[in-house]
Specification:
16% strand, Rossmann fold, binds S-adenosylmethionine, globular, 12 helices, alpha/beta, 8-stranded mixed sheet
């Protein structure tokens, strides 16, 4: 498996890399920006105070702290900070990507507009949005303190999907075909030759087995990430970067297909977690097949893939 995990701040690391040195970026950045600072992570690990949300224990089981995206939503200064953060990051990402390279970036319906403006300003073309259909258990509540009086209302929709912004660095060549020949980038890989790449992905909560291997508070499921990393290299050639690697789940998904990847994680605890987790996550579901046939009946299997590693090896 050709992957490299690096313990560093991605802003610094990216500055040291050559222009046009990665083919795709698949990443899930910190949205609260504050949530993954050393101070807030320390509070999260102690389970006390700070801006992490501790979900109510409605069935006797203690739940992991969740990032609280809503803390920044109403404050113009915080919105400005998020914009500035993603603009600075987006410019670095633009420089590193090859022309035609795609960026898949996880977001939230409350903030994807800000990220989108920052990415455009950084020079990216917006190429749409991938919808990961998954219940987040956020929102949907009645007005606080007046739940009975206004029992027929929800203050904000219950989250049932997660947007992943899709961006592309402009082509350097006249056509997509020429760009693909020169840079191995510019398009998205199909899972099946007869079906175009589609932007709606039925998904699931990250299965328990994956959360046990890597108990990161924001871990994404292999079933979903495998589909993204696969699509991100249109010819199956090049390097995928995840600058906010967390548990290493993107690298594990790339390793499943034998694709090259680099992950950067600045937190020492998560970095060590990722070092141990990547090979284990990559070896899960070795024969995962059709998600349309299996997912509804077997939501914990992580089998939401329309292809298997064997199938892909045959295509190579
Ligand atoms: C939302 S989590 C990613 C979780 C990941 N998708 C997974 O499945 O495990 C964001 C990660 O980025 C890391 N991070 C935050 N700022 C960073 C930076 N400047 N450089 C590198 N990593 C950073 C955080 O420590 C956190 O692990």
């Amino acid at each position: 498996m050709a992957y490299q995990l690096i313990h560093a701040d991605c802003f610094d690391w990216m500055d040291d890399q050559n222009d046009a040195s990665v083919t795709a970026i698949v990443t899930d950045p910190p949205y609260g920006v504050k949530e993954y600072t050393d101070i807030e992570l320390e509070k999260q690990r102690k389970g006390k105070g700070g801006i992490w949300r501790i979900p109510p224990s409605f069935d006797g089981h203690a739940r992991q702290a969740l990032p609280r995206f809503s803390v920044i939503n109403d404050d113009p200064q915080e919105r400005e900070n998020v914009y500035a953060y993603f603009l600075a990051w987006g410019k670095k990402a633009m420089r590193l990507l090859v022309p035609g390279g795609h960026l898949f970036i996880a977001s939230t319906p409350l903030l994807s507009d800000i990220v989108s403006m920052a990415m455009r300003e950084a020079g990216f073309e917006r190429r749409g949005e991938i919808i990961r259909v998954v219940s987040t258990l956020r929102g949907g509540d009645r007005p606080k303190g007046a739940e009975i009086e206004f029992s027929e209302t929800s203050v904000i929709p219950r989250g049932m999907w997660e947007p992943w912004g899709l961006y592309r660095k402009p082509l350097s060549e006249k056509t997509v075909a020429e760009n693909l020949r020169k840079w191995n980038a510019g398009a998205l890989r199909r899972e099946n030759t007869n079906v175009p790449f589609c932007d709606l992905f039925p998904s699931q909560k990250t299965p328990k087995i994956e959360r046990q291997i890597a108990p990161h508070p924001s871990i994404k499921p292999q079933g979903f990430l495998r589909r993204l990393v696969y699509a991100s290299l249109p010819l199956g050639k090049g390097t995928i970067l995840d600058p906010f690697a967390g548990s290493g789940s993107t690298l594990a998904a790339a390793a499943f297909f034998g694709l090259d990847s680099i992950g950067i994680e600045k937190d020492a605890v998560f970095y060590k977690m990722a070092v141990a987790a990547v090979p284990k996550l990559a070896s899960l579901y070795p024969k995962a097949l059709s998600h349309d046939r299996k997912m509804e009946n077997d939501p914990g299997s992580g089998a939401d893939l329309q292809f298997s590693s064997d199938f892909l090896r045959e295509q190579a």
